[in-house]
Write a structure and sequence with these properties.
Distance between the termini: 28 Å
CATH superfamily of the largest domain: HUPs
Number of domains: 2
CATH architecture of the largest domain: 3-Layer(aba) Sandwich
CATH class of the largest domain: Alpha Beta
Strand order of the largest sheet: 1-4-3-2-5-6
Radius of gyration: 21 Å
Length: 305
C-alpha cells in the first residue's frame, strides 16, 4: 500500500478508482466500498485510491460543539494498519484545515480528482456528502461525469445484523464495553496500538503487567474492566489480558498482561486486539482485585481465539 501526504505527491497513479472519507474504524461498510473500489480498478487495469483526512473534519469544523468531545475509533497509525490489510493500493492523507473546508464540491472534483489524479471512476458511499457545507453528493458526481471524464458509482447502504453500520454506533458500543458488538460492526477486532512501558502497579497475579502508551489523545477507549485480547508484535503472537482503569490522576490507562511474552522484544509498537469483556472495573487497592484478576486470567486461558 502506497501512502501519500497530500495530492501533489500522488501524481502518476495509473487509472485511479477513487473514493473519499474519514474512514474512522475502517468498519464493515467501509470495507464494502473498498472491495468495490478494488474490483473496479481490476476491471479497468487501474489502481484503487482512498482520499482520507487528518485531523478529523468534525474537530476542525465544529471544535466547540460536536467536534469538542469526539473520540476516534482509530488513531492514524491504527487506520493505516487496518487499511493495509484490505489490499487497497493507495491512500492519500489530506491535511484538513478551515481553508481546505471552503473548497466547493465542484472545485474538489476539478482541481484534485480531475486535474491532479485524472480519476477514471469515483465511488461514493450511501448518503456521502463532500465539499463546502456538504453540498456535493452522488447526484452531483453523476452530473459531472462527462464534464470531468470519469464514471460515478454509488454504493448502497450496508447492514450488519439488520442494523445500519456507522461510526457513531461503533463508538457507542465501544464506550459501553460491548466489544463483540463493535467487532461485528467493524468486521474486525477493535484495536489499540502503542508502545509498552512499565506499569506502576504490582500485582501477584500479573507480575509482568505493562502499560500501553496510547499516543493518540482522541483515541476512544472502552470503560474500566478486564478484557480478553490477543497481542501482536511483528510475527509474534500471544493471548493476553487488558485491564482498563483510572490512575491516581484520573487518566485512563491500558494495562496489558501478555500470557506468552518470550518471543516479544517489547521495543516496538504492539497491536492489542480486543475479543470480549470479561469483568467490570478493578480496584487495585482492594484484596478482591487479586481474586478477580486470577479468575479472569483463568477464564481467558480457556477461551478459543
Amino acid at each position: 500500500m502506497n501512502i501519500f501526504n497530500g495530492f501533489e505527491s500522488a501524481r502518476g497513479i495509473s487509472n485511479p478508482v477513487v473514493t473519499t472519507g474519514s474512514f474512522d474504524g475502517v468498519h464493515a461498510g467501509h470495507r464494502t466500498i473498498l472491495r468495490r473500489l478494488q474490483k473496479l480498478a481490476e476491471m479497468i487495469g487501474g489502481e484503487s485510491v482512498l482520499i482520507t483526512f487528518d485531523p478529523h473534519p468534525l474537530k476542525v469544523l465544529y471544535p466547540a460543539t460536536i467536534g469538542k468531545n469526539l473520540k476516534l475509533i482509530c488513531s492514524q497509525e491504527e487506520k493505516l494498519e487496518l487499511l493495509s490489510k484490505t489490499g487497497i493500493d493507495n491512500v492519500i492523507i489530506v491535511t484538513f484545515t478551515l481553508e481546505f473546508s471552503k473548497t466547493t464540491s465542484e472545485q474538489f472534483v476539478k482541481e484534485y480528482l480531475h486535474d491532479i489524479l485524472h480519476a477514471k471512476v469515483v465511488v461514493a458511499g450511501f448518503n456521502h456528502h463532500f465539499g463546502f457545507n456538504k453540498e456535493g453528493d452522488y447526484r452531483h458526481l453523476w452530473g459531472w461525469q462527462e464534464k470531468y471524464d470519469f464514471i460515478a458509482e454509488e454504493i448502497p447502504e450496508q447492514e450488519v445484523h439488520h442494523e445500519t453500520v456507522n461510526s457513531s454506533m461503533i463508538r457507542q458500543a465501544i464506550s459501553e464495553g460491548y466489544i463483540q458488538r463493535a467487532n461485528a460492526y467493524l468486521d474486525d477486532y477493535y484495536m489499540v496500538m502503542g508502545m509498552p512501558a512499565p506499569a506502576n502497579i504490582i500485582n501477584p497475579v500479573t507480575p509482568g503487567l505493562m502499560r500501553i502508551m496510547v499516543t493518540e489523545p482522541l483515541k476512544l477507549l472502552p470503560p474500566g474492566g478486564i478484557y480478553a485480547v490477543s497481542v501482536r508484535e511483528g510475527s509474534s503472537y500471544s493471548r493476553g489480558m487488558v485491564i482498563v482503569h483510572k490512575n491516581k490522576e484520573s487518566e485512563t490507562e491500558v494495562l496489558l498482561d501478555i500470557f506468552d511474552p518470550a518471543s516479544f522484544s517489547l521495543k516496538k509498537s504492539l497491536s492489542v486486539l480486543f475479543h470480549k469483556k470479561i469483568r467490570g472495573a478493578v480496584d487495585f487497592r482492594s484484596k478482591e482485585s487479586v481474586l478477580a484478576l486470577r479468575s479472569a486470567k483463568d477464564e481467558i486461558s480457556e477461551l478459543i481465539f
